[in-house]
Predict the structure.
Amino acid sequence: MEIEKQSKENILGYITHDVFDKFGRLLLAEGTPLTPNVVQKLEERKLGFRISAEPLGNSSAILKSASLKTGNSKQFKVPPKLDNKFVKINGESIGNAAKYMNWILRQVQEDIFLNNNLKILAQGHKANYSHSINVSLITVAIARKLKYDKPSLQEIALGSLYHDIGKILLPKSVLDDIAGVYNGQTLIYQQHTVLGSDLLAADKLPTGVYLIARQHHEKYSGNGYPSGLKGNDIHLNAAIVTVADVFDRLTSAVFKRNVLPPDEAINQILLAKGIDYHPQVVDMFVELFNRE
């Protein structure tokens, strides 16, 4: 998939009003530059809009627009100092994954729609944003071991980054009670998978991206949610993210559970190999901790 970069040469004009999608997300603020790619995405969503040849004179609108432009917004990067759990992982594998995710983050920030999703995730719940970065690093490292080609690697990297994006549409009270919903104990919490998938599909992202959001709580035995898929009916991208997601949750204090050392978390995942998790994915995951 291609991510459009904005330049003065391909600006068609400026939007004259705020544009929201069916989920209530602010997609474009008044005064945002419109490129052919952005116009195409608006038309694909069947969203009406008005365009002006020049930016509007409303200073507050221009400031609001500027906050959505990549050049003036927070630059998202993989933290230079990673969580202690990553010390256990092969240094080359995690180093390459970090470099790749920094490249992905730079690409995302060149796309207005993808960047907005990331900003909403980071601003709405910082714990989930940090979790998403951790999951993406482990996911990319596993995908490389599985010899993913370049397009497939980009898809799984984006999908892992946005795997929990549906949570931005959940009530804050549900998100604040992380410990109480850890195993999907409430129907409301479980809906983040469907909401996230629908949101990413509406953004016209590939199947290999949005199915990660939908299926990352499915289990290999068929006892997961939301659809009870089993075995190879679960997209491989989602199966990889499932393992990365669980490992980070088991080893992260932010989720208000008894934090496990990495070795114990790995053992728990191994015990559920072929039950909750795809066997080949677990094997590749465990190989990451071979530091030779």
